[in-house]
Amino acid sequence: QVQLVESGGGSVQAGGSLRLSCAGSATIFGYSYMAWYRQTPGGQREFVGGITSDGGTNVADSVLGRFTVTGDFAKDTVYLQMDSLRPEDTGVYFCYAVLKMGSTYWGQGTQVTVSS
Predict the structure, then answer these.
(1) Mean pLDDT per 10-residue segment, the chain (116 residues)
(2) Under 8 Å CB-to-CB from 70, ≥6 apart: which residues?
């Protein structure tokens, strides 16, 4: 059973930074894509940023220029560097992964709270 474990969440003041990590369990198939989503209070789960195993990245317009997604697929790990955080970035951040054979998985989520 594939597991994704997020870490790095916490509380920070507006303008601060946090770095999230997501470690996937080892699998013989390998990961083709890993990404971050977030669910804000009262909102739906939304895409934040993702990275493919060949290094292609994309991020949502709402975080462009502030958040950076990186990954180390040799370690089945993806990171989300969040800078210039805003109160509206508050939410639960979820890791999402796609195996090369097509299965998809979600992590349990990590809370990020940004105070003004």
Answers:
(1) 94 98 92 96 93 97 98 96 97 97 95 97
(2) 51, 57, 78, 79, 81
The amino acid present at 82, given as its one-letter code, is M
Residue 58, phi then psi, degrees to nearest 5: -155, 150
Ramachandran region of residue 65, left (φ > 0), alpha (ψ -120 to 50) or beta?
left
What's the Cα-to-Cα distance from 8 to each of 55, 78, 104, rounded to whole Å?
22, 12, 22
Q: What does the angle CA 29 – CA 47 – CA 104 come to, to the nearest 5 degrees?
A: 25
Q: Strand 57-59 relative to strand 10-13: parallel, antiparallel, unpaired?
A: unpaired
Per the listing, tokens 């990404």 go with 35
User: What's the pLDDT at 27?
Assistant: 87
Strand order of the sheet with strand 18-24?
4-7, 18-24, 77-82, 67-72
